[in-house]
Structures are given as C-alpha cells and as structure tokens.
Amino acid sequence: MVGHTGGTTATRRIRRLKTPLAIDVEAPEDGAPLRVRLSGVWQDATLMRRPWRIDQHWWRGEPVRRDYYRVVTGDGPPLTLYRDLVGGGWFRQEYR
Amino acid sequence: MRVAFVSIPRFPCAAEVLRQAELARCLLIVGDAEQPKRVFDCSLNAGAGGIRQGMTIRQALATCPDAVVLPPDPVLYRGRWETLLDVLEGISPEVEDEGLGRAYVNVAGFGAHYRDDEALAAHIVETIRFATGLDARVGLAEGKFPAFAAATTDTVIPAGDEGAFLALLDVELLPVDPDVVSRLRLFGLDAIGEVASLTVPELQSQFGFEGKRLWQLANGIDEAPLRPRPAVERIESCLSFEAPVAGVDVMVAAAKQLLSRLRPSLRGRAARELALQAELESGRGWERRVVMREAVSDAERLAFVLRSSLMNSPPPNAVRSISLRLGGLTGETGKQLALGERGRLQQQLEEAIRQLKARYGYSPVFNCVDVETWSVIPEERQLLVEYDA
C-alpha cells in the first residue's frame, strides 16, 4: 500500500471562459433591447441581426433558455446580449 | 602510476600568515562563517594547545584565551590555491585538486628529467615556495594512497616498498569509511600492517565488497585513477587603484572598463559566467559570481548584468583592486527558437510564471482548454485552467 506522502495536493483554479455579465437593459416585454447602460451611461441599442434562441438542458432539470440579440450602441463595438428566460434578467456575453 | 601528493597543512592559516606575517607568532584560529561559529582551521601551535577543527569558537577560546580568531576569507584561500595548482601544472599537466591544501600530481615518466625522486620532490617544494611562499609537504609513491601517506613524513617511497612503509602507520590514515576504521580498532587492528597481514577473504567476510579494497590499500596498492582538473580557458583582467575607492558608480565604471578590455579576447564567443573579485581596503577578498541563464556575447547585456549585480550587492567597503573573469565560454552567437512545445519561448514563459507565482502566491496565468466546443451555450465551450509551470 502506498503511504501518504504528507504533502498537500496541488490544486489548480478553474474558471469558465465567456462567463455572462449582468447588464442593465431597457426593452419591451419579450422584445429586443432599446437602450443599454454601459459605464453608467444609457445608450441606444440598434439590432444588427435577427435574434436567436437557445433552449438546452431541459432534459437535466436545469434548463437553459435564452434569447440572444446582437446590437450596436453608438460608435461602440457590437455587443451580444441575452435575456434569461428561466431566471430573468439581461446579460452581456462574448458569443463567438 | 607514480604519483606525488602535495600537501599544505592548515592551508587557510598558512594563507592568513602569508598575508600578515605577524600572525605566525600567534595562536591562530580561522572561524567558520556559519552559525554557530566553529573552528574551520587552526595553526599548528593552536592545535598543540588543544584546539580542534569543528569545536565552537567559545570552546576554543576557553581552551586558548590568547588565540587570535579570524573570519574565513574563502576568496583569498581559493585564489592562493588556484595559483598553486597552476604552478603544479607547470611541472606536470595532470594535477588533481583534492580541495584546499591537497593535490595529486602525476609524475610518471619523470625519472629521466631529475637525478632521482628525491630531487623531483625537492624541485616541487622549491617551486611552490618560490611561486607562492608556502611550505609544502610532498610524498612520492606508486598510487594515490601511498603517496598521501608518504607526504605525512615528506618521504619518497621506492617502487615496491609501499607495503613496508605503510605497515607501521595508523589505520586512521586509510581512505575508507570512518565506521570501517572503528571496526578495525574493535578487532584490535591499529596498524595498517596488521590489516595487510590478513587475507582478502577474511576482510571480505567482515567488510563485504570494501574488504578487497581495504586489503589492497593496506598493502600499498591503490588503483584509483588520477582525475586531472579540467583545462578551462580563463579570460580575466585586473584593475588596481592608486588609493582605495568606494561607491557603486566607481565600481560599475571599473567593471565596464575591465569588460571592454576583455572583449577582444572573447572573439565573438559568448560567456555564461561573470566573476567579479575585489581586494578590499581591509585586505580581505570579495567575490560576486553571476551565472546567466544563457550565454551572452552582447557587450551591453554583459554591462547590464555587471551593473545589476554591483547595484544589488556592492563590496562592503573601499577596494584596492578589482578583477573580472569571464567563464563558461561558448561559441554561441545566435538564437535558434525551437519549434516544439518545450521550446525556448515555452521555457521563458514557464520561468516568468514561476516568478509570478513566487511573487503573488498563485499563478495569474490561465490556460484555455476546449471542453464542449460544439455547445451553443458559450460558457460551456472552454474552461480557463490555472497554468502551473
């Protein structure tokens, strides 16, 4: 039998890449975002492409249902936002 | 193989006396640099007064209250010893460095050059005295151990008489494990001749594999080869000041001056090691050795390394002279980046991460690992795993 070495097991920290970040969004119910607050400033959002929905893991009991929107605000870079249809709220996320 | 063993008894004390002649009349103790301070070496008269190597300085001073205690000066000792080895290499090209004050010299085939072995031994002693001012003991015999034993009495042992010479000497001299010597004494074997009178099987039955070697040594047979010190090209230059100088800027300027002098000798090669030595105002030695991760030939980089080293740890006080030696010379002039995962860039990255981890306690660098690249949920596609070099 192999004895205990007495050393501590080396552990490595693990993080998810592309973790969603909560964001303030003004939008009609079940509609596309109209305004987005970035760095404390509300900016108008323009839809760049048709929204898309993902509906995953409904078979696991922890479903993931989101409506994604690709928008652009003023001169800023395009953003990918989603509305969480399960827990509610808006999030910004790197999608590619 | 005819071997000469050259011994400078109590070498650190001899080197100190050479530097300060008045110390010759004192009971001299060279203390150890490590805590608790112990006796590293002592003069002959201090030894006669009961001082032994390894005892604490406090004990030594209790034994000999009049003794003079000096801190060790390894730079001085090493420098003097290297000089002596160079002198010996002028006599024979094969010299084995056995540590401070002990060296073996291959003198096989020297018979035609000297009247006899006594003349050869006298020549070695005289040459050392003339070049370094040190008094050496020399023993000549067939093999290393008989030569070592012969040096204890400044003797030349004719070929074939080794066993007879060793017979009356104490077993303590045998170059074997101290436990073996203790067991020999337990058996009542105090003289080497008593060990030699036993047979190989008798010794092997008690000491196993070591038994045969023990028998050979006791009979004056030592087949251990002489390991000459490697020939190393040294590029060095020295700068002496008319009056002792202090200050990092002066040191840096002097070091750069030395570097510019050594540049032509490099001839396009790169150096991996820099050794700065200085003689302090107090007469003691100071040394700073820098080993670089890779050989460097660029003058600016070498100057930067010198400057950094001097800024980090300058000499403790004013210096009389300073010397610079370049070592680890290689012909490397360019860098070839490896293509594999373990390439030079990879190694540099790992080294950087190790340093970051040492600084912050964790690695701030993460490795991106594909997990479910096909997933439509972005955060499930990849994970960031801490990169641990």
Work out the helicity level of chain A.
under 10%
- Low-pLDDT runs of 5+ residues of chain A are none
The helix tally of chain A amounts to: 0
- Number of helical stretches of at least 4 residues of chain B: 14
Distance between the termini of chain B: 51 Å
Cα-based radius of gyration of chain A, to the nearest Å: 19 Å
Key terms for this structure?
heterodimer, A: 96 residues, mainly beta, B: 389 residues, MutS, DNA mismatch repair protein, domain I, Dna Ligase, domain 1, 4-stranded antiparallel beta sheet
List the helices and strands and how they pair.
The complex is a heterodimer of chains A (96) and B (389).
Chain A: E1 14-16, E2 21-22, E3 25-26, E4 35-38, E5 41-47, E6 52-56, E7 64-73, E8 79-84, E9 90-92
Antiparallel strand pairs in A: 2-9, 3-4, 4-5, 5-7, 6-7, 7-8, 8-9
Chain B: E1 2-7, H1 11-19, E2 28-31, E3 39-42, H2 44-48, H3 57-63, E4 68-70, H4 74-91, E5 95-97, E6 102-106, H5 117-132, E7 137-142, H6 144-151, H7 162-166, H8 178-186, H9 192-196, H10 200-207, H11 209-218, E8 235-245, H12 248-266, E9 271-280, E10 285-296, H13 299-312, E11 319-327, H14 344-360, E12 366-370, E13 382-386
